[in-house]
Amino acid sequence: MTTETRAPAKLALSAVCLGFLMITLDATIVNLALPAIGAEFGEPATAALQWVVDAYTVTLAAFLLTWGAAGDRWGSRRVFEAGVAVFVVASIGCALAQDATWLIAARAVQGAGAGALLPSSLALIAHQFPDARERARALGVWGGMSGVGLAAGPVLGGLAVGLADWRLVFAVNVPVGIVAIVLTRRAVTEPPRRETRLDFAGQLFGTASLAAFVAGFIEAGHAGWLAPATLALLAGGVVAGAVFVAAEKRVPEPVLPLGMLKIRNFAVATGIGGLFNFCLYGTLFCLALFLQRAWSLGALAAGLALVPLTMAVGLNAFFSGRLTGRFGPRVPMVAGALAGLAGAIGFALLPAERALVPFVVVSVVFGCCSLAMPAMTSLAMNSLPGKAGLAAGVLNASRQTGGAIGVALVGALHPAAGMWLVAGGYALVAGLAFAERQSS
After folding, report:
1. What's the Cα-to-Cα distance from 91 to each of 50, 167, 375, rounded to whole Å?
2. Which of 107, 165, 170, 281 is least buried, going by the fewest C-beta atoms within 10 A?
């Protein structure tokens, strides 16, 4: 990349990453605000609080595939700007919510906007940085913003609740989103478009399957695995999933081309993405409640206790881009998975009484899991050249699906049991990382 084109490219990267930071931040910023939200709305049950988180991640996961293809067809920059606009409007709705139902519905709309923003952001980076090495570094910055957003969310949520009001965690998105749109219009160029057809049947049954599974896991947490409602929801998820697979085999341009999963490195990246977010989202949800319920910390104190994890996640995500550019994706993916495994075991062994020093040490170790984030993204994008929007949509649909299920399933368990489940998930991530073909 020449000196003349480097500055505009960096400005374009800043614009895209600013919008992306906003949506990753909102995946977890609400965690430490959950007790305050429950107290105000009279909805203290864990199931209701899980839906405040999962209404966002379910719709985000559900719309990623369709919006990824739509970006290829209508223009990734146009879809990116539309996603930011929807997200900002929905954030206003969240800040003005008068009850839990209103908030959950607004969170779902937020997720739909994020579903347009996320895959188009990756497609714009792929277009702006055609050189593989430059792209790896740019994805490192993008992944670093993801790490910062995911880990800083609980901290900023705690600060908002402790110093002001939980509604601030949503209102802050408004100026950030406006700046992102202005910068995008100024610096980001539109990639070439590609004619595609939208798969509405796949969208419908894929969404229904995911929502039913997540609802079933949440229901199991308070009603039991053998409760009629739990069994009905899980069965509905299976049936909708089967119809989804059958539909994808029949349409000419499916929302999820199943043949993509036959490409080894792309399948590896997709599997790692789902497992990684299952572990990370589940852990952040558990820690937010554990610090306030088990250790009786206030929202502000709990947020400050998570600062070491926040810093470790953000720094290692940025560092991963350079590691990936130099050594390929396997090294940072394996390192991140092993760090997550060690950290999850450490969290599982924490005593019930307050032990802040061990908590900080374990948090720093766990935070190194973010080494895997930009690496998995780079692996996926390089596995499907020329289909950046679709590749980004599938990868991040897997990640957000894993995150939604992680909050539902890990959040339904005792914290120690949940952390052992997370440890098993990271062990699987490490195994998948070794399956990556180095030739990519």
Report:
1. 18, 9, 30
2. 165
